Amino acid sequence: MAVSGTLSTFRLPPLPTIREIIKLFRLQAVKQLSQNFLLDLRLTDKIVRKAGDLTNAYVYEVGPGPGGITRSILNANVTELLVVEKDSRFIPGLQMLSDAAPGKLRIVHGDVLTYKIERAFPESLKRRWEDDPPNVHIIGNLPFSVSTPLIIKWLENVSCKDGPFVYGRTQMTLTFQKEVAERLTASTGSKQRSRLSVMAQYLCNVQHILTIPGRAFVPKPEVDVGVVHFTPLTRPRIEQPFKLVERVVQNAFQFRRKYCYRGLGMLFPEVQRVESTEKLLELADVDPTLRPSQLSVSHFKSLCDVYRKMCDEDPHLFTYNFREELKQNKSKNQERENDKERSRR
């Protein structure tokens, strides 16, 4: 007689609540590290559901803290969950979860900014970039202090197809201050449009999928929290090196309330600034009187393509730093003033 097979579903056994874990190990959020704990497991379950179907997935959780989201991920029937936690105070509580989920939870005491995730999961998980995303996910309730530098680092990894993206188009589901989440997903022309908007959207499909009120966290942050989902694009909307794109975008948003030519002009040395800025905008077919927030990803593609050609013609251009030139000019002016003062004596 045939027996109908059913998929086995893992569930954690009864455990102390996150609040009890915090009391048991005398854990306190460190304000300087921007730590905020999410204690409501209904909300952590919701975040994990928004990440997609995690059945048999390999998940990399950053900043697990006392383990709220960690529990929800383990209950999503993953094959393996790797957590990287810098703060040693949280390790005993995470170890309790590991004991309750034998073979499923791997704990690394380390820094997410330096941890080599590309060596963490089996080679067999790797997919071609053009294929569907691999069954590898990044999930995390990030401390506000590291969220922006970390997402910039990962976006550069997307561009280079290294780090967490050696497995393919690894999806990310991450928390940010609501204002940062809105910047990441801001459309052209909106007041939240920023450097982050362009850098994220030229490489990924970015969705603000959930907003969590600040009162859900302990201690309560002064802002609400946005959950953002990233899926790397099969082909970036700007096909230039990450550092070049970042340079153009950063300069464009340098003076966000002024016309775009003002910030873009800072790409060029003072002696050629006017002429080179006019050339850049003319060849890129970009209206110099647009504000930075009005520049679309297509505008930036044209600007980056033209700037690349200009850098190829003049290799010193890419290393130019207008702040350094400003500092040198100030130093020269000061020397002249000192010389004048000495000559009067």
Task: Describe the protein.
There is one protein chain. By secondary structure, the protein is of the alpha/beta class. The chain has two domains: 18-232, Vaccinia Virus protein VP39 (Rossmann fold); 242-328, rRNA adenine dimethylase, C-terminal domain (Helicase, Ruva Protein, domain 3, Orthogonal Bundle). It is built from twelve helices and nine strands. It has a seven-stranded mixed beta sheet with strand order 4-3-2-5-6-9-7, sandwiched between helices. A two-stranded antiparallel ribbon has the order 1-8. α3 links the parallel β2 and β3. α6 (178-185) packs across α7 (195-201). Mean pLDDT is 90; it is low at 1-7.
Summarize the structure.
The protein is of the alpha/beta class. The chain has twelve helices and nine strands. The protein has helices spanning 18-24, 41-50, 68-74, 91-100, 144-160, 178-185, 195-201, 242-252, 260-264, 273-284, 297-313, 322-344; strands at residues 37-38, 58-62, 80-85, 105-109, 136-140, 171-177, 204-212, 217-218, 225-232.
CATH structural architecture of the largest domain = 3-Layer(aba) Sandwich
Tally of individual domains: 2
The end-to-end span amounts to 111 Å
Indicate the structural class: alpha/beta
Instruction: Fill in the CATH topology of the largest domain.
Output: Rossmann fold
Which value, in Å, is the CA radius of gyration?
24 Å
Report low-confidence residues grouped into runs of 5 or more: 1-7
Helix content: 25-40%
Characterize the overall form.
Answer: elongated
Q: Biggest β-sheet: count, sense, barrel?
A: 7 strands, mixed
Q: What is the CATH H-level superfamily of the largest domain? A: Vaccinia Virus protein VP39
Arrangement of strands in the largest sheet: 4-3-2-5-6-9-7
Helix count equals 12
